[in-house]
Amino acid sequence: RVVTYWTRVKDHTSIQIFGEKISRTCPTLFESPSLSYGNSSFKNKVYGFSKIDRKSGDIIDEKELDMPPTKYNTKSIWLEIPQSIKENYQNNGIPFEGSVLHAIEHLLISLSPLIIGCDSADLGCQCTRRPNDKCRGLLLLFERGRGGGTGLVQPISAHFEKLLELAFICVSGCDCEKGCLSCIFYSNCRSYNENLDKKETVKFLK
Fold first, then answer.
1. What does the alpha-carbon distance between residue 186 and residue 98 come to, in Å, rounded to a whole number?
2. Alpha carbon 197 to chain centroid distance?
3. What burial letters (b/e) apply to 21-58, b meaning 16+ CB within 10 Å?
4. What are residue 46's phi and psi, to 5 degrees?
């Protein structure tokens, strides 16, 4: 039997920050925003899947699932974007969190192995931001490790400016028009690289 479709999971990951944090400023970005790392909780809920036609790429069916969520404590690193910057994007009709912040998170995940010697699969980000997510407005990476994390956020913090520099070089130097796996796309993205804005990402990092 020839299978004429493939399946795409529908899930949502939410992160909550708790406890003490270690913070400093990030002077290379607008208004020197605060960069912090500390404890966080991870929750992922798979709520369904879609069947995608192999030829057309159209959704031909969707199924709902009722599965228990995956939860664990880990560590995260996050950048607090000034409200004035968010409002500027909002006033210009640009969905900043899902198009720019998310693209930068992809870049940082992909480039971190060059700086701190990890595997990109050791890190994750908020791919499926929702209005009630407490951390949706943060540029945030979390450690994909149970039992309190894997020890990556501290070296990422120490080399954060270098990572941002590499991110700008990567995305601005890529010949693609709207994004690809060589710049802002990420193969493990849970929102399937939708709505990412390469042009605005370059502007933000410049």
1. 14
2. 13
3. eeeeebeebeeebebbbbbbebebbeeebbbbeeeeee
4. -90, 120
